[in-house]
Design goal:
It is built from seven helices and 19 strands. The protein has helices at about 40-55, 105-115, 130-135, 195-210, 235-240, 270-290, 305-310, and strands at about 15-20, 30-35, 60, 70, 75-80, 90, 95-100, 115, 140, 140-145, 150-155, 160-165, 180-190, 190, 220, 250, 250-255, 260-265, 295-300. The strands form six sheets. Strands 6-7-13-11-12 form a five-stranded antiparallel sheet. Strands 1-2-5-3 form a four-stranded mixed sheet, with helices on one face. The protein has a four-stranded antiparallel sheet with strand order 15-18-17-16.
Length: about 300
């Protein structure tokens, strides 16, 4: 049995060793995480951050893994925090509080079923609540920031802090969280509505997404942000016009369905994806003179130690 590191001792924590990251990402790519922590409570998350901060150990947060490419070499020197056990679901009148690990589509289904309006426009978006808030999930049918009231975050000082949505300065695909903060829950101010109509709307949006985007394949969602948010030409159209559809490196391929999506055709590596994105970006710049900003997060490969280099 692997011995617990010093920073993990003294409080209750579910810690896995050498956990494969690929199954925790929607594109199914990534090596092993040396430490994979799944705190069961908000307070436990705060204790973990304090312990890591005191020990000088860094961390990364992996939620639903829908906008992430994990490294082929895994994560060796930092702790991967997976908030999947933070599954709180609480309704009071029209206010709903959800844990960071709660699946967004389950939240859409439950709130619309309760006749609460506000999240139905997010139908079909694969994410957990924490990640959905951090990236301000949404689109032409509405944004999560439209109904977000506040978030509770764990901080490296070991405390929980409540932050109002207005203080997060949320914009297109962004929320300004304090450095080192990990979202543990979010509260939404919804409105009373007709359950049948809300469920129908969410279902129609999900079906429309499935027709236009490759939602059944292994991918991480959009590769690039639209250059002008939602107001101008889309990144997918720019990629298509530059001839990127069908472009492949190894087993990573830009889909024929949508120019902003990269599929794992079976056995793709993070390096395949990096090279494919770089090649597509060069083509897009050559065609349009536009440098697209990436929406997908690509974690860096771990540095090789002297021993692993054979030196």
């Amino acid at each position: 049995m692997t011995e617990l590191p010093a920073w993990a001792q003294g409080f209750e924590l579910e810690l896995k060793f050498d956990e494969r990251l690929a199954p925790h990402t929607t594109i199914d790519i990534g090596g092993d995480a040396r430490w994979f922590a799944e705190p069961a409570t908000a307070e436990g998350t705060a204790k973990l951050l304090l312990a890591l901060s005191t020990a000088g150990v860094g961390w990364k947060v992996l939620g639903g893994g829908s906008n992430l490419v994990a490294p082929d070499g895994g994560v060796r020197d930092e702790v991967v925090i997976h908030p999947s056990k933070l599954n709180e679901f609480r309704i009071k009148d029209t206010r709903v509080t959800l844990g960071a690990g709660f699946a967004l589509q389950r939240a859409v289904a439950l709130t619309t079923g309760e006749g609460l309006a506000g999240l139905q426009g997010l139908g079909g978006i694969p994410a957990q609540i924490g990640g959905a808030v951090a990236m301000n999930a949404g689109g032409r049918h509405g944004w999560i920031s439209d109904v977000l009231e506040s978030v509770v975050v764990a901080m490296p000082d070991g405390k929980l802090h409540t932050i109002l949505a207005s203080d997060l300065k949320m914009g297109y695909r962004e929320a300004h969280l304090p450095k080192g903060a990990v979202i543990v829950s979010a509260t939404f101010d919804l409105a009373a509505g007709n359950a049948a109509e809300l469920k129908k709307t969410a279902g129609e949006i999900t079906k429309d997404k499935s027709k236009k985007q490759p939602t059944r394949e292994k991918n991480f969602g959009c590769t690039w942000k639209n250059p002008d948010g939602q107001s101008g030409v889309s990144a997918g159209k720019l990629a298509e016009d530059a001839g990127c559809k069908g472009l492949a490196v190894g087993k990573a391929r830009i889909t024929a369905t949508h120019g902003n999506f990269i599929d794992n055709d079976g056995g793709a590596t993070a390096e395949d994806v990096r090279q494919l994105i770089a090649r597509a970006e060069a083509m897009i710049f050559a065609e349009h003179g536009i440098e697209l900003e990436r929406e997908v997060v690509i974690w860096p490969e771990p540095r090789l130690s002297m021993s692993s280099r054979g030196g």
